[in-house]
Each structure stands twice: as C-alpha cells, then as structure tokens.
Design brief:
This protein is mainly α and 334 residues long. The protein has one domain. The chain is 76% helix and 2% strand. A two-stranded antiparallel ribbon has the order 1-2. A hairpin with a 2-residue loop joins strand 1 and strand 2. Helix 3 packs antiparallel against helix 7. The chain is globular, with a radius of gyration of 22 Å.
Length: 334
C-alpha cells in the first residue's frame, strides 16, 4: 500500500498556516513601520525553520519521499518568489510608495498571490488527474519560460502592468498623492482612490504572471495538491520581511535570473520525460509509454535546485565584490 499523508495532518496544517498568515497580516496593518535588518532576519529565519519543521513532521507522519517533495517544491517556489520580489521592488520605486507603508501593500500582494495560486493548483490538479498529456504542455511552457527568463528580462510584465494601470486610471478617480496607507481619501470634498489602488493592481498583475510560471514548476516536483499548496504558502511566508532584508541587493544579484531559468528549464525537461514515460497520446509511440524515458527522482531534483541557486548567488556576490573593488580603485586613481 502506498504511503499517504493523514487527512488530520492536512487539515491541521492548513488551519495553522491560515492562522500564521492572518497574524502576519494583522501585524503588518497594526504596526506600519520600516523594519530593521535584524528584525527581518529573525522573521525570515523563523519562517525557514517553520518550513523545515513542517518537512520533519511530514517525514514523521508520512514518509521521507513526501518530505523530500515538499522541500524541493518549497525551494523552487522560494527561488521564484525571490524573483517576484525584484518586480515588486520596481513597482514600489515606480510609484514612490513610502517605505513605511510598503509592508501593508506587500501583504495585500502576497494574499492575492496565495488566492491566485490556490485557484491554479485546483485547475492544475484536475487537468493532471484527467489528462496525463498535460505534462507535455507544462514542460513546453516551462522551457519557453526558462528561455524568456534568461534572455528577455521583465519587459513583458511591465507592459502588462502598464496596460492594466492605464485602464484603472481611465475608469477610476485616482489622486497623485498618497494619504498614509489609505485606499481612499477625500480631495476638495470628492472621494477618490489613492495610488495604493494602482500599486495593488500592479502587484496583482505581477502575481498572475508569476503564478502561471510557478504552478507548472511545482507540479513537476510533486502532483500532490496539498504539498503543492503547502510549498507555495511556506515560500510566500516571510516574503514581506525578505523584501526589506534584501532591499537593493536583489538588483545586484545579477546572475540570479540565470539560476532560476536553469531550474525552470530542468523541471521542464523533467515534465516532458515524465509525459513520455506515461505517454497515452496515440500519435506518439502508438499511444504506448516510452519505456526508455528516464524518471528524474525527487532527490536529484532537490540537488539540482540547490546547486543552481547556490552557484547563481555566489557568482553574483563575487561579481558584486569585484565591481566594488574596481570602483574603489578608480576613485583612488582619480
């Protein structure tokens, strides 16, 4: 009999995760402030420890394979979430959101991301259950996304946001100035939306684009909907604090997008191989599984994901150090 994750464990975990997200949301709104690096580091460390603790509980109450799938999925989603932060940073700077109120806006963006990903997980799980050939589509989409990530940057996301923002400004009365963290304000006796609305819509558009990338990626690691959702929740936990902790460093991790592109490409290949291994399409191998197609294990996936992110981060930090050294040498020379 195949090992299963106990139903009580799934229900209990979802309840605890919901409470943590709710507490984080309340905290962001009750205490709008610019968090110090030490505070952010402690929170990020807490959420990472929470994710590893969850993996330990999975190993204890289910089995090692489920724990490995969760960790690999969590790391994949975490790396994609860090990439998401880069676009969040661009949006915040474009609209000049006061740093004191960025926590609230980020929290709304994270909630939107969770809702969108939950919807896509339900749709993806149904597609996989009824149409095994969907892995071919997921794999091809991830390979395309990997190429776009490596060679085109964020232009498409910015164009999408621009079109949506223009639509919002035409349909709604929006002021040019912020009124604290308020969504609506009164100007000359007229009720109007503040730029917070435009920022939230921009974050939502970004979340939609990243959800389209991340859900096929996580299904390449595990097809268990509970683990897929849990990996997404834990990846998004602490994202607000990570935003303030990394700050401008995100822009300086110049090779990070190559690492993420490699991960997406690797999972794309894994999905295509899985589709070949379970093939049912009549025009491919007569509708029979392609037996020589290898299956890539969870542990190989985990190793590739960790190695890709490690190499990209270390290479970026080495380049950052060299650039600083060259700048200092130029200053001395002049």
């Amino acid at each position: 009999m195949q090992p299963q994750i106990p139903l009580w464990f799934e229900i209990g975990s979802l309840a605890v995760m919901s409470l943590i997200i709710l507490a984080d949301l309340v905290l962001a709104y009750k205490r709008p402030h610019i968090p110090l690096p030490k505070e952010c580091a402690l929170w990020v460390g807490f959420y990472v420890a929470l994710a590893l603790g969850f993996a330990g509980l999975l190993f204890w109450f289910a089995d090692l394979e489920f724990a490995g799938q969760f960790v690999a999925g969590w790391l994949t989603e975490y790396s994609l979430s860090i990439d998401n932060l880069f676009v969040f940073l661009i949006i915040m700077s474009q609209f000049k959101v006061p740093r004191k109120f960025q926590q609230e806006v980020l929290m709304v963006g994270i909630i939107i991301a969770l809702i969108l990903r939950a919807i896509f997980i339900i749709i993806g799980a149904q597609l996989i259950e009824n149409f095994s050939w969907v892995f071919y589509i997921f794999g091809a989409f991830l390979l395309y996304t990997a190429w776009k990530q490596a060679f085109t940057g964020y232009e498409d996301e910015e164009q999408t946001e621009g079109a949506i923002i223009r639509f919002i400004r035409k349909r709604f009365s929006v002021t040019d100035k912020f009124d604290g963290g308020k969504l609506r304000t009164t100007v000359a006796g007229k009720r109007m939306f503040t730029p917070i609305l435009v920022v939230i819509v921009a974050l939502g558009a970004t979340d939609l684009i990243f959800a389209l990338d991340s859900i096929p990626a996580i299904f390449g690691i595990t097809q268990n909907p509970f683990l897929v959702f849990a990996a997404n929740v834990f990846a998004l936990m602490g994202l607000r604090q990570l935003y303030f902790l990394l700050g401008d460093l995100i822009e300086k991790l110049v090779y990070l997008h190559y690492g993420i592109a490699f991960i997406l490409g690797f999972i794309g290949v894994k999905l295509v191989l899985h589709a070949m291994h379970t093939n049912e399409l009549p025009f491919i191998n007569g509708g029979h599984p392609i037996e020589w197609a290898p299956e890539i294990s969870t542990w190989v996936s985990l190793g590739v994901i960790v190695a890709a992110m490690l190499v990209a981060t270390v290479a970026s930090l080495i380049k950052l150090g060299r650039d600083k050294k060259l700048d200092s040498e130029k200053r001395v020379a002049t």
